[in-house]
Amino acid sequence: MRHGRSLLLAAIGFMAAIGSARAHRLDEYMQATVIDVARRHITVTVRLTPGVDVASGVIRQIDSNADGILSAQEQKRYTDRVRQGLQLNLNGHPLSLTVAETLFPPVTTMQTGNGTIILRLDANVELIPGSYQLVYANHGAGTDTVYLVNGLLPHDPAIHIQQQRRSPDQASYGLDFSVSR
Fold first, then answer.
1. What's the predicted TM-score (pTM) here?
2. Distance CA 151, CA 166 (A)
3. Closest to 111 in 3D by CA, of 47, 50, 25, 70
4. Is 147 helix (H, G, I), strand (E, B) or coil?
5. In terms of DSSP bridges, do strands 29-37 and 145-151 run parallel, antiparallel, or are they unpaired?
6. What is the DSSP string of 100-115?
7. Measured between alpha carbons, how far is residue 23 from residues 55, 67, 170 in Å?
8. Per-residue pLDDT of the chain (181 residues; tens, 9 = 90+)
């Protein structure tokens, strides 16, 4: 239920950005990420939306047999490729991201610039009271890629966001937070 609510909040939070992206980013691959921090896990949800002008290239990367259908195996390979391009560190220590959920739209929807791939990745953590620095980096898909990244307001009142930092292109993100008792 908690992940469902987080995904819903993420979707609502990025609808305006994605909606604008559809209208203005026809020639770019939008990768919008939200990060949800909880005591036992950190969830990274990446929404990948190729614009009309770049959709065929993205589809070719996924649909390896060019049959117009994204098989489970093709989806898994692409998900793994995207995941390998992501880095998540907590207090200087790398965290392993595991795939929790994926959603791929039909190829025909992607060709119109309206298809969004959703990847939900989790990192298991055990947050105790103290200060933390989370660093996220998306090494992305190339020159046509644009990034958007944000942290969600934690559901746990003991987790306090202190500062967010982004690189100018938002491919890198830092989040300082603390956990109280």
1. 0.85
2. 11
3. 50
4. strand
5. parallel
6. EEEE---HHHHHTT--
7. 15, 29, 20
8. 555 555 444 444 544 444 444 444 688 999 999 999 999 999 999 999 999 999 999 999 999 999 999 999 999 999 999 999 999 999 999 999 999 999 999 999 999 999 999 999 999 999 999 999 999 999 976 778 999 999 999 999 999 999 999 999 999 999 999 999 8
